[in-house]
Amino acid sequence: MRRALLTLGGTAVGLAALLSFKSHSLAAAAPDPAVSTPAASAGTSQPMAGGTGAGSASPASSPAGAGSAKAGASGPASVRTVTGAVDNTAYGPMQVQLTLAGAKITKVTVLQRTNSGSESDEIDGTAIPKLTSETLAAQSAHIDAVSGATYTSSGYIQSLQSALDRA
After folding, report:
1. 42-80, pLDDT tens digit by residue?
2. How far apart are alpha carbons 163 and 97 in whole angstroms?
3. Could you tell me the residue range of the domain that residue 167 belongs to?
C-alpha cells in the first residue's frame, strides 16, 4: 500500500512538472533580426580585415550604427559596426563587436575574452568559433551555450545581446 501511494504521488508530481514546462519556440526567435530596419542586405561585404584590436581600422566603423550615405543609388545596404558592453565573468571580461549589413550580421569579432590562464585560452579557442558560427547562422543572440564553456558562453551571449540592442 505504501509503495502504491508513493508511486501515485510521484506520478502526480511528475505530470504536474511536465505540464508546467514551457519550451522555447523557434517562431519567437525569428523577429529579433528585425530589431533594426531591414534594408536589402548584401552578404558579400567584408569591411574589416579581422583581428582582435579595437576595431577602429574600418572606415565603416561608427558608434551605435549611425546611418551611412556612402552607398550610391545602387550600392549595398549600410554597413556598420556595433560594439557590445563588456560582460565581466568569473574568468575575465567578454566583449564582442558586430559588423552588420542592413539587419544582417556579417561578422562577429571578439574584442575581449576570458583571461585566467592557459585553461581559459584552451576553452575560448574551441568555444568562441562555435559561438560565432551559431551567431551567424541564427542572426540573433538566441544561441546555445557551449558545453564546458559556461562562463565564456554566458559572457559572449550577454555582450552579443547588448550589441544587438545598440544596433
Report:
1. 333 333 333 333 333 333 333 433 333 333 444 566 899
2. 7
3. 72-167
